[in-house]
Amino acid sequence: MCIIINLDEVLKAREMKSYELAEAIGITTANLSILKTGKAKAIRFSTLAKICKALNCQPGDLLVFEE
Description:
CATH class: Mainly Alpha
Protein name: Transcriptional regulator
GO molecular function: DNA binding
Distance between the termini: 4 Å
Helix content: 55-70%
Organism: Psychroflexus salis
Domain HTH cro/C1-type: 7-62
CATH architecture: Orthogonal Bundle
Strand order of the largest sheet: 1-2
């Protein structure tokens, strides 16, 4: 079982760069990179909410479950 992170796709659709999102939500580009590559073991709901607000999307747009 695996959670797939679609952050790159959503960023491309919104024509936003990673560093712009990191600055907008107040995290480092290194931490955002860990999330984008799927290496993160967890994400705070507050961080997820900030990402969704900045990208005008829903959590389901970013996270997909695959068996």
